[in-house]
Amino acid sequence: MNVRALLTTAMLPVLRRYFPEAEPADLGFFGGYADISSALPKKNGLDLSPETVYNIRTAISIGGAPLFSDAVCEAGFLGFTLSGEALEVIAGALAVESFPMEPSPVIELGATPECIHARLLDAAHALPEAPFKPPAGEARAAFWHLIAADTPSSLEIALRQTEAALDAHRRSPVFTKAAVLAMASAVSRFISK
Questions:
Q1: Which of 145, 186, 180 is nearest to 36 (CA)?
Q2: Were both Cys, which of 85, 104, 139, 171 would link to 165 (CB 3.0–4.6 Å)?
Q3: pLDDT tens profile 108-140
Q4: pTM metric for this prediction
């Protein structure tokens, strides 16, 4: 499953109500201050009212869950924060996909897809069954970026973040089993068969 494509498909019809020329390239998935951002207001010279931003945020859902928990428009940029419910829907969809449940036979150490996949599977084996809970802080960024990665450069960022988050998880658990299985499913797409 391509998470970016899924979310872009959910967002564009609503954004086109306000910005008819909105295209997939207008959505940024690896920004610093928001999960998804867009320069559409700046590009069109518009200043969106808080009511308009609220209407955009509440009009978009995924799997029956609100897609965003927050949205802001500052300096011509829209910034969206994914809701915990949406992350749960996405994690559930990723976890049911067929992916290798065994590590690759050859693993290059470091922030490689094979190594991160093996570490995620190891973390999953050590965790009890529990309902999905979105990770917080840096672990949330690693989770989000890994499941949204779909290019070599976005994958490289996500793998480095996931490596650091897994190191923190070893000291004090920050992920649930459902979260690490979704992450393992996402990274398995990048493992050479």
A1: 145
A2: 139
A3: 888 999 999 999 999 999 999 988 999 999 999
A4: 0.90
CA 154 to chain centre: 11
- Decide if pLDDT at 31 tops 80: no
- Please give the Cα distance from 52 to 40 (Å, whole number): 13
Report yes or no: 183 and 68 within 8 Å, Cβ to Cβ.
Answer: no
Tokens representing residue 193 in the block: 């068969």
Q: Output the average pLDDT for the chain.
A: 93
Q: In whole angstroms, give the CA distance from residue 94 to residue 88.
A: 10
The pLDDT score that the predictor gives to residue 193 is 61
| Helices vs strands, H then E, count in the chain | 8, 5
Kind plus residue range of the DSSP H or E element containing 68: strand 68-74
Share of the chain above pLDDT 70, in %: 99
Please state, in angstroms and rounded to a whole number, the distance separating the CA atoms of residues 183 and 175: 10
Yes or no: say if 13 and 59 are a contact pair by the CB < 8 Å rule. no
Exposed, middle or buried by CB within 10 Å (0-12, 13-18, 19+), for 172?
exposed
Lookup result for tokens 């672990």 = 139
- In the chain, the amino acid numbered 33 is Y
Which of the four pLDDT bands, split at 50, 70 and 90, describes residue 66? Answer: very high
What the block records as the tokens of 169 is: 């998880």
